[in-house]
Design brief:
By secondary structure, the protein is α/β, with parallel strands linked by helices. Helix content is 44%, strand content 20%.
Length: 387
């Protein structure tokens, strides 16, 4: 069995729209059907993947067939309306020779091999290795499979937590939080998900999924005449992707949404390690009106020097500053930030005592469960809070 998936399908769908994307997938299926052998059976499996059953081929033949299919897809130009597109695919192979108890097992093995292939930079055809079964019951491997399934089947969801001004401002701002619900009902936070995402080289896909949903949310709120500003976490992979700024511009234009409603947030440590590309990326997206926030900021000399090199809008102090014993250091950090024209946001404020301690430090905004628990809705009375 061969498991085929279209690389970057989510980004393509967001760029050309759902209707055009369905047409594209139908054309891709037709191409696959015309490329199979006379004894092969092919079917669509999920939104952007296909299965091919090859009962008469040895493993070496399956690998050659997978490579041939990649070449066929890469060389084909798909005409969708006024757009011309080519598609890249990854292929996972599960040979019958390994022996399988049922159809589900062989399909799962082919899908796992395909996921491994997608993580490779060059070798996009991968044969299932029985050694991978050692990790089948590893909770991390289980969660990683759920992450991949969520990407293919739109299975993530977003929560929103209000960001409240301590200066009387009533603009509606929300921090966006990524979540994944397992089949057993357990909800996984971003802190669990993202390390696995990075290790499997899926950061690009997850970043784009989150950002496209947020831009759609901004568009819907504009349509309802209830604009909001969303703080959206992104990985450093966004900075290092030369096509990302253009993709964001296309997403904003497609949704008729103003870039100033969007705040992209990055961990300061990651940015400091990639100062030059970060500065270039920030400049590109700021031309679209998009704002930049840096989290986990530390005010040591090297950090302050790095910050002076970047054009940003918001900083979030590192967690160590948000305790009563560090208020003096926090005030110094805030004074420096204000001297650079930056706004300061205190995240993860959980109780009234911490909020009260921050009141006179010069902090501009607070966010956390003390303000309101994160929820799927964008419901919070910012006017009452400002009052």
């Amino acid at each position: 069995v061969l498991f085929l998936i279209i690389d970057g399908a989510h980004a393509i769908r967001e760029r050309i729209g759902l209707s055009a994307f369905d047409t594209l997938i139908a054309q891709a299926g037709t191409l696959l059907a015309s490329s199979r052998g006379t004894t092969d059976l092919a079917t669509r499996y999920g939104d952007t993947s296909y299965l091919v059953l090859c009962p008469g081929r040895a493993e070496s033949e399956l690998v050659r067939f997978g490579e041939d299919l990649r070449g066929i897809f890469a060389s084909r130009v798909f005409e969708i309306g006024d757009k011309s597109l080519s598609l890249a695919i990854a292929v996972g192979i599960a040979p019958f020779a390994l022996g399988w108890p049922d159809a589900s097992s062989i399909v799962n093995a082919a899908e796992r091999a395909c996921a491994q292939a997608r993580g490779e930079r060059e070798h996009k055809v991968r044969v299932y290795e029985p050694s991978l079964a050692i990790y089948a019951n590893d909770p991390r491997e289980t969660l990683l499979r759920e992450i991949r399934h969520a990407l293919h089947h739109d299975g993530f969801h977003l929560l929103f937590q209000p960001v409240v001004s301590l200066k009387g401002e009533s603009e509606e701002k929300f921090q966006v939080l990524l979540r994944l619900r397992s089949p057993d009902g357990r909800e996984h936070a971003a802190a669990e998900i993202l390390p696995l995402v990075a290790g499997a080289r899926l950061s690009d896909e997850v970043d784009r999924w989150v950002l496209s949903r947020c831009i759609a949310t901004l568009s819907e709120r504009d349509r309802l005449d209830r604009p909001v500003r969303l703080f959206v976490n992104q990985s450093i992979e966004a900075v290092l992707d030369p096509s990302r700024a253009r993709w964001i511009a296309e997403q904003l234009a497609a949704r008729h949404t103003e870039g100033e409603r969007l705040v992209l947030e990055f961990r300061f440590g990651d940015v400091r390690a990639h100062l030059k590309p970060s500065a270039a990326f920030f400049e590109s997206v700021r031309e679209l009106g998009v704002r930049i926030s840096l989290s986990a900021f530390d005010s040591d000399a090297a950090s302050i020097q790095a910050l002076s090199y970047l054009k940003i809008d918001y900083v979030k102090p590192a967690a160590r500053y948000l305790v009563s014993s560090e208020l003096a250091a926090l005030k110094q950090l805030i004074e420096f930030a204000k001297s650079q024209g930056l706004l300061v946001l205190a995240p993860q404020i959980e109780d009234a005592r911490t909020a009260a301690a921050l009141w006179n430090t010069g902090i501009d905004y607070v966010q956390g469960n003390f303000v309101q628990q994160a929820s799927t809705g964008l419901d919070f009375d910012f006017r009452a809070s400002a009052g």
